[in-house]
Design a protein that fits this description.
Helix content: 40-55%
Structural class: alpha/beta
Oligomer: single chain
Shape: flat
Number of helices: 5
Radius of gyration: 21 Å
Largest sheet: 3 strands, parallel
Order of helices and strands: HEHHEEHEHE
């Protein structure tokens, strides 16, 4: 009986209204957070398909970004990029994603190795990787 009913339930859920997720992008940090959210969604095949087919949509909300007017204030000090050090062990994809969220670069010690998937994710997220000699 369950096998007979399940396809009908799945079709009715699939035909339902698309889910709309509000997105506010006011600056580069918001844009970066949205891209990381998309990457997170694309890790799950079901959610990836929902985005591709339009069952999960995004709607821009909040005030539109405005151009900052020039001020006579003293310019901000240059931002020093954060560093995430890994002395030994394997650097995984989750380590790379965490570094991307922090805006950090990865510095690997002599006894650290990076997995191929982590290297690929670092390239996609533009996380710099340095290997110490």
């Amino acid at each position: 009986m369950l096998r007979e009913v399940l396809p009908e339930v799945v079709r009715s859920v699939s035909a339902a209204e698309p889910r709309v997720e509000p997105v506010t992008i006011a600056d580069d940090a918001d844009l970066h957070a949205f891209v990381l959210r998309l990457l997170e969604l694309y890790e799950d095949p079901t959610r990836r398909e929902a985005v591709r087919t339009g069952r999960l949509c995004f709607r821009l909300t909040g005030p539109a970004p405005t151009q900052a007017e020039p001020t006579q204030e003293e310019p901000a000090a240059p931002r020093v990029p954060a560093v995430r050090r890994v002395e030994r062990g394997a650097v995984t994809e989750s380590t790379v994603v965490a570094a991307a969220k922090e805006g950090a670069r990865l510095v690997l010690g002599r006894r650290a190795v990076i997995t191929p998937l982590a290297r690929e994710r670092a390239r996609a997220l533009r996380v710099p990787i340095e290997k110490e000699a």
